[in-house]
Structures are given as structure tokens and as C-alpha cells.
DNA sequence: TGTCTAGAGGATGTCAGGAT
DNA sequence: ATCCTGACATCCTCTAGACA
């Protein structure tokens, strides 16, 4: 079951798409177009009456209403069926995090956009270019790209903790030994003095090695274009994002690859190792708008870090978008009432 | 007694953030 | 900016029981 806030924002958006004057009236009517069971109606009614998440409910309702009226979207036509994925991810390898499906065709994501777009395994990102199927190394990425520095860090941490009985090879650690070593390290990401240089070396080697692999694997223009679409969460079908960032509602239509190619040309995909306190790779997409020939840049970065504590599990890659969502190529403002459809910007 | 298989439960990988 | 966490989905391994 999703948390209450998610339930309110997703179903509040759905209710806003239906022709009721006010949220309370929609809740009282329990319109059959919104296909959820009675327990969900009870929960939602209770949440609305409680006044918790009132701001979220109002913002979600306004987003749904904008979707109903937008020329890009429903153009005032009342939906016949709104399906809710129930806070769970739909099956399949769709890139878009779809929460609602309207009349079988309109896909809507209600996520409050976060800078963080995905946490794949580093190998899936740097070797598999974010595809969902294929072959890439499954082991520990640190050992994959920076074996020497990783080994030095492990040796230093093991001896600082006095755990001489642990295996020489960090890859041979059992889950219990990993937990033991993790708990023995100083808190808040600090390392024993004799391990600090090894950690700096590891960060540098992982940043440089990951960037090199990524560049090598995204060598062809076709590969780079596919990678860009995945980083931007451009899916096989267009979808809508109805959410908010800290300042304002965000109502966007996200292009399909077909739309994207007609509106933009990818000029360059720059990948470079960053200097940071943890392994990091920066990326920047340079593109040309076909409409007026102007150029644009979208930026982001990837952090490679341990998930669930040091030595506890192989590292994950955390992908960030540093360019605001409404400035990304392929993210078109959803046309408000009176606006022209904005396919061509 | 040997082989096969369903499924239980642990391990691993991924997602979506939060805390400081 | 950096590190930490909970929740799941899926993969993997082991084992009890069915059946030949």
C-alpha cells in the first residue's frame, strides 16, 4: 500500500479530471469512472476530512483539472475510465513511472519531481546504458573499475578494525562479515586515518574508470541518443507529468522518441569524471532545437556509492538531473486553456 | 531410492527519497 | 554535498514432499 500522501496526490489528481465542482462532491459521489475499490474510497474520504495533506489535495485537484481542460490532453472531454496503479510500479520495463491511465491511452505520472531519476547498478548504467535487458558485470563495481584502490581501502579498514580473521579478498566476505566490518567503521562516513588516502584514491579511480567505460560504451550516435532518452525518461509512448516542485505546479508532456527527434538534434553527450568526496561522473547533453536552430544544454551527474553502508553491499549509481524539469528537451509545458498545442515549442 | 518440483525464505538489486 | 534508510521486486538456493 502506498503511503497516505501518495494516495492523496495520485487520486486527488484523478478526481480533478472529473467534472465536479469541489473535491468533497467528487468524494461523496464516488464516480464509477475512477476504478478503485471501496476500501480506497474510505481511506481517501477519511484523509480528506482529516485535513491532513490539504495542500497536496488542492494542488493535485488543480493539476487534474488542468489536465481535463488542456488542449494537449483531454480538451474538456470527461474521462470514461481512470485506472490507478495503486502506488505500485506497473509491470514491464516502461521508463515512465506511470500512476494513472486515462481512457486506456493517456499515461500520467503524479510524482513530485525529484532531482534523482534512478538508482541502477553502476554496471547497468555504464555498461548497459540503462537498458533493462542485456549483459553486464554483476559483481562489485568498485572491484570492477578500481580493484587496487578498493583492495587497499579494504586492507586498511580491516586492520584498523583489528579483524585479521576476515578474508584477504573483500569479494569473499560473507554477509555477516560485511555487517561486522560496516559496524566497526567510524560513524558518519568517516574512515580510520590509515584508510583515508585509500578512500580518496578509490573515489578518483572509480570516477575516472566509470567515465571511461561509459564513454566507450556510448560510442555510436545511436547509442548516445538512446542513452539520452533513458536519462531524460523519454519512454516509448508520450506521457504527462502532473506534480510540483518546491515553488510551483509542474504540468508537462514528455515526448516520445519520435517527438524528440522531430524537435531536437543531439549534438554532443559529454561525460567526465568529477572531483568530489565520493565517486562522481558528470554528464551534459548538448542539443539543437530544430525549430529555431538554437542550442541548449541539459546537465546531470551520477554518484557511485555504497547502498546500505560501507562494504555492506555492492555500490549503486545514483543519477541526478541538475537542469530543472521544465527546461529539459522533450519536456513540453502542457498547454493550458487557450494555449496552442505545443508540440513544436 | 532417486528425481523432480513448488514454494519458502534469504540474498541481491532497485526505487524513492530523507537526514545532516 | 554526502551519506543513510525503508520498502519492495526479483533472483537464488535449499528442502520437503510427490511420484516413479
Short description:
By secondary structure, this protein is α+β, with helices and mostly antiparallel strands. The protein is built from 11 helices and 11 strands. The structure holds a DNA duplex (20 and 20 nucleotides).
Describe the structure.
The chain has 11 helices and 11 strands. 37% of the residues are buried. By secondary structure, it is an alpha+beta fold. The protein folds into 2 domains: 4-112, no CATH class; 122-339, no CATH class. Strands 1-2-3-5-6-11 form a 6-stranded mixed beta sheet, with helices on one face. It has helices at residues 4-16, 23-29, 38-50, 54-69, 122-126, 141-145, 147-161, 175-184, 193-217, 221-231, 257-263, and strands at 82-84, 100-102, 106-109, 116-118, 239-244, 249-254, 264-273, 280-289, 295-306, 315-321, 331-333. Helix content is 37%, strand content 19%. The protein is globular, with a radius of gyration of 24 Å. The structure holds a DNA duplex (20 and 20 nucleotides).
